[in-house]
Design brief:
Pfam families: p450. With 415 residues, the chain is mainly alpha-helical. It is 57% helix and 7% strand. A 3-stranded antiparallel β-sheet has the order 1-9-6. It has a two-stranded antiparallel sheet with strand order 2-5. It has a two-stranded antiparallel ribbon with strand order 3-4. Strand 3 and strand 4 form a beta hairpin. The longest helix has 32 residues. The model has no long low-confidence stretch (mean pLDDT 88).
């Protein structure tokens, strides 16, 4: 990562795993690897993902019944933030309903801080602005104050809960959320916990919400593929009774059913190939080296690879590189066939391979299977052309307005 990138990211991510090297990185990598591999966290997370997918489904039912267009991008970003906060902190943010003014304020501040931090990569004067507290740096400081106050308050609440073990064991999440598990170990410093958790939030909110948004956009542009995905979901869930609401359908989305959704997995992966959440990934040379093509790099040089560009290169993916073709990921038996991570670089490769890859696929497949199993999606404006918003991640600039239509005789429901 190097000191250059660390300095750019430190105000937002502190000494979290995405902003450090050496022993701090190895320690967090080891701890995170253990957490992501635990059955407790996996089971707890899947329950949360289902609940939030159902909440989102109920909003879509209302939009379908009233023939209202809806910004699915905004909804996905809110739903994924709710999910990662519950998994990370064990606390219901309820951002999707906007019932908490503090949560809405945090969400906006976090998104703005993300965008402002990304601008540092292109603004050579950012340190001067920070020193004098002017312009974009003054705005970043204001947003980070909102973010930090919110996060530190949650850490204090969770710490107090754990001090009263009786109350703590009665809470819904118990010790299943990530923060509780860290607090039970040797990690007690609020600043370090803040850094770790915000890195989890960044990894679990934007990439999932962004990918789901691009996924729905591509399915709207390719209705024949949307129907193939819906068929794959229907066959995997093996429904045996009439579905009247989203909860009914979600009950069929078991772990076994998710594993059978090979075409859905391929369609999501093809989305990530064309629209990787992290379009550009810079690295700092640890020492002098020679790249495979013979180019010499020196210690401290910045070398960036671009998953966005690499995913569209014809000499890597063939003449149809710019086409959306989920079947490229399936073998002759219709089973998903993964590519070499040094070819499909969206999740990185080698020692820094994304630890949350399977975790991310689980969330995306739960959301996708429940929503596409219950609804048909169409663009509100078929001529609409999406634009990108400058940020660390590949955001859509502006709303993604769609219209939804019910696949079954769905009724609204509460959970």
């Amino acid at each position: 990562m190097g000191t250059y990138t660390h300095d750019l990211l430190e105000d937002l991510l502190g000494h979290g795993i995405f902003a450090v090297d050496g022993e701090k990185w190895r320690e967090q990598r080891k701890t995170s690897s253990h957490e992501f591999s635990t059955k407790v966290l996996r089971n707890f997370s899947s329950v949360i993902f289902r609940k939030n997918a159902i909440k989102l489904g109920n909003i879509l039912i209302e939009a379908a019944e009233n023939n209202h267009k809806i910004d699915i991008y905004d909804l996905f970003m809110k739903a994924t933030l709710d999910s990662i906060f519950k998994v990370s902190f064990g606390i219901d943010l309820d951002n999707i309903w906007g019932s908490s003014k503090q949560a809405v304020r945090f969400s906006r501040a976090f998104d703005d801080a993300n965008t402002l931090t990304s601008r540092r990569f292109f603004d050579m004067s950012w340190k001067i602005k920070k020193y004098f507290n002017i312009g974009s740096e003054a705005e970043l400081k204001k947003n980070m104050k909102v973010v930090d106050e919110f996060v530190y308050n949650l850490i204090q609440i969770k710490t107090e809960q754990m001090h009263n073990i009786t109350d703590f064991l009665k809470t819904e999440s118990g010790n299943e959320d990530i923060l509780s598990r860290f607090l039970q170990s040797k990690y007690k410093d609020p600043k370090y916990l803040r850094d770790i958790i915000l890195n989890y939030v960044l990894a679990g909110k934007d990439p999932i919400g962004i990918t789901m948004s691009w996924f729905i956009y591509l399915l709207c542009k390719h209705p024949e593929i949307q129907e193939k995905v819906a068929k794959d979901i229907k066959e995997a869930t093996k429904m045996k009774k009439e579905i009247k609401n989203v909860v009914d359908f979600a009950a069929y989305v078991s772990e076994g059913a998710l594993n059978k959704m090979q075409y859905l997995h391929a369609a999501l992966t093809e989305t990530i190939r064309l629209y990787p959440a992290l379009p550009l990934d810079p690295k700092i040379c640890f020492s002098d080296d020679v790249l495979p093509d013979g180019y010499h790099v020196k210690k401290g040089d910045v070398v960036a690879y671009l998953p966005y560009a690499m995913g569209r290169m014809e000499f890597i993916w063939g003449d149809d590189a710019n086409e959306y073709k989920p079947k490229r990921w399936l073998d002759e038996n219709g089973h998903f066939h993964p590519e070499n991570p040094f070819k499909f670089t969206a999740f990185q490769a080698g020692p820094r391979t994304c630890l949350g890859r399977d975790f991310a696929y689980m969330q995306m497949k739960i959301f996708s299977s429940i929503l596409l199993g219950c609804f048909v999606f169409k663009l509100s404006d078929v001529k609409w052309i999406p634009r990108y918003r400058t940020s660390i991640n590949l955001h859509i600039d502006g709303p993604l307005d769609i219209r939804v239509f019910k696949r079954f005789g769905l009724n609204n429901c509460e959970i």
